[in-house]
TrEMBL record:
Species of origin: Maribacter flavus
Ranges where the Rho termination factor-like N-terminal domain occurs: 52-80
Segments traversing the membrane: none
Family annotation (Gene3D superfamilies): 1.10.720.10
Region (Disordered): 23-51
InterPro entries per UniProt: DUF7218, Rho-like_N, Rho_N_sf
Protein name per Swiss-Prot or TrEMBL: Rho termination factor
Composition bias, Basic and acidic residues: 38-51
Alphabetical GO biological process terms: DNA-templated transcription termination
Pfam families: DUF7218 (PF23855), Rho_N (PF07498)
């Protein structure tokens, strides 16, 4: 039987483990740890509250949040933060 190789797709394992320990889902922790600038401070993204509902909906679509078409802006923000 062939030996399985550990082919982790996590770019920043330390950050991933820290996020999981904080209570983030494995999916969200992996998404954050795999960003090109993972582990770096100084993010320039606007706060969710400053974005339009259309922008929030687009982000929810990218992430794959279910039920997004029926959500209002406040619900989209909550879903994005808790996914």
């Amino acid at each position: 039987m062939a030996e399985e190789k550990n082919t982790s797709r996590i770019k920043n394992e330390e950050q991933y483990e820290a996020l999981v320990e904080k209570g983030y889902s494995k999916e969200k922790a992996a998404r954050i740890a795999n960003t090109p600038d993972s582990g770096e401070k100084g993010g320039k993204a606007p706060k969710y509250e400053e974005r339009t509902k259309k922008e929030l909906y687009k982000k929810a679509t990218e992430i794959g949040i279910e039920g997004r078409s029926k959500m209002n802006k406040k619900e989209l923000i909550s879903a994005l933060r808790n996914n």
